[in-house]
Amino acid sequence: MAEHTATHDVEKPAPDMEQEEFKKEFNYDTDPRINAFTLKEQRKIYRRIDLRLVVTLGCMYMISLLDRTNLGAASVAGMQKELGMNSINNAYTIVSLVFFFPYAICQPPATVAIRKIGPRIFLSFIVFGWGVVMIGFGFVHSWQVMAGLRVILGIFEAGFYPGCVYLLSTWYPRYELQKRNAGFYLIGSMASAFGGILAYGLMQLNGRAHLSGWRWIFIIEGVLTCVLAFLAYLLIVDFPENSPKSWRFLSQKEADLVVARIDHDRNDVETSPFHLGSYLRNGLDSKVWGFAWLYMLTTTNTYAIAYFLPIILQGGLGFDVARAQCLVAPPYVASALVMIIQGYFGDKWHLRGPIIVFNCALGILGLGLLGYVTHSGVRYFGVFLATIACNANCPVLLTYQSNNIRGQWKRAFTSATLIGGGAIGGIIGTSVFRPVDSPTYRPGILACLIANVLMIVIVLLLSLKFYRANKRVDAGGKQIEGYPGFKYTF
Question: What is the pTM of this model?
Answer without folding.
Answer: 0.82
